């Protein structure tokens, strides 16, 4: 039996994944909207529904409207749909951004729709494999009570978990997600570039580092981030850290390593593998107050 009718606005990675997942779970897709006809048609034809560039042409027929456009366009898209008569009272309008508040959907709310946010806490690198990564993930929800209630039902149908946050906390929530996902990618790129200085190709460097990454992730999963900490900071090994800093000739990389190290000192203290005196020594090295060990 079909669940409620849905329109996806935005045919990028997130919109494509949600469209496929919802269709699989019995939701009735009635249209796909995108800013280009080709992207709308490419996704819509997979479900035999209309693909349009004027979102209001299909949103008016849906009980649920999911806006999965880039963050910067959510407010504009909502305003345009409202102007075109695509929202109605009693409708549920949700966007999938991590950092944008439900206030961006005020044009729909002002017309009597229940509005909220339903952000999947997952990175979707490509559309082909992303459908396999949605089961079991967490979604951060916020907005009108009834919109949050519906979002919880959708997440449950998708096989996910959910938690609610306030709109004022969304920037911090999304910032932490970026640290874990986006900035980890940058750290991996940095490490592979370093390995390239002594002859490894990017592919070889990535292959060499990946077991270490996977082992670290496994340790975090089973032990938590504090107990999973290993390495020279955790051991209070100032000599090794000094050698690392000396080897990093690029000033920005030197600074980045030091800043990450200074944060890690605090983690090591919480783990209990170094004491306050060792922490002072490590901070002196990392901040440049101690050029070398005596």
Note the main attributes of this structure:
294 residues, single chain, 2 domains, eight-stranded mixed sheet, 14 helices, alpha/beta, Rossmann fold
Structure description:
With 294 residues, the chain is an alpha/beta fold. It folds into 2 domains: 5-165, 3-Layer(aba) Sandwich (Rossmann fold), CATH 3.40.50.720; 180-286. The protein is built from 14 helices and 8 strands. The protein has helices spanning 13-24, 37-44, 56-59, 74-83, 106-109, 127-130, 145-157, 170-180, 182-196, 202-223, 232-235, 238-247, 251-271, 276-286, and strands at residues 5-9, 28-33, 51-52, 64-67, 92-95, 114-120, 138-143, 161-164. An 8-stranded mixed sheet has the order 3-2-1-4-5-6-7-8, with helices on both faces. Helix 9 (182-196) packs across helix 10 (202-223).
Number of domains: 2
Ends: how far apart?
A: 75 Å
**Which stretches are poorly predicted, pLDDT < 50 over at least 5 residues?**
none
Tell me the strand percentage band.
5-15%
CATH class of the largest domain: Alpha Beta
Give the helix proportion (percent range). 40-55%
The arrangement of helices and strands along the chain is EHEHEHEHEHEHEHEHHHHHHH
Q: Whole-number radius of gyration?
A: 24 Å
């Amino acid at each position: 039996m079909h669940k409620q009718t849905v329109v996806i606005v935005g045919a990028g990675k997130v919109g494509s994944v949600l469209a496929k997942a919802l269709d699989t779970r019995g939701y009735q897709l009635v249209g796909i909207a995108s800013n280009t006809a080709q992207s709308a048609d490419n996704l819509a034809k997979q479900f035999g529904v209309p693909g349009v560039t004027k979102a209001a042409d299909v949103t008016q027929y849906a009980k649920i409207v999911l806006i999965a456009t880039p963050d910067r366009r959510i407010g504009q898209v909502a305003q345009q749909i409202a102007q075109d008569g695509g929202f109605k009272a009693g409708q549920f309008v949700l966007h999938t951004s991590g950092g944008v508040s439900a206030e961006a959907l005020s044009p729909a709310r002002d017309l009597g729709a229940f509005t909220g946010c339903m952000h999947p806490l997952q990175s979707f690198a490509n559309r082909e494999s992303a459908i396999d990564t949605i089961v079991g993930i967490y979604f951060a929800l916020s907005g009108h009570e009834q919109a949050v209630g519906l979002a919880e039902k959708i997440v449950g149908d998708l096989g996910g978990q959910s938690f609610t946050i306030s709109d004022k906390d969304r920037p911090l929530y999304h910032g932490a997600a970026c640290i874990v996902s986006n900035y980890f990618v940058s750290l991996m790129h940095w490490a592979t570039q370093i390995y390239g200085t002594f002859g490894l190709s990017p592919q070889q460097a990535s292959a060499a580092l990946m077991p270490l990454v996977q082992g670290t992730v496994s340790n975090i999963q089973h032990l938590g981030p504090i107990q999973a900490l290993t390495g020279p900071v955790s051991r209070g090994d100032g000599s090794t850290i000094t050698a690392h800093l000396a080897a990093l000739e690029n000033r920005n990389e030197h600074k980045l390593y030091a800043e990450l190290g200074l944060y890690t000192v605090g983690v090591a203290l919480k783990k209990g593998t170094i004491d306050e005196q060792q922490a002072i020594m490590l901070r002196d090295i990392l901040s440049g107050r101690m050029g070398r060990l005596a």
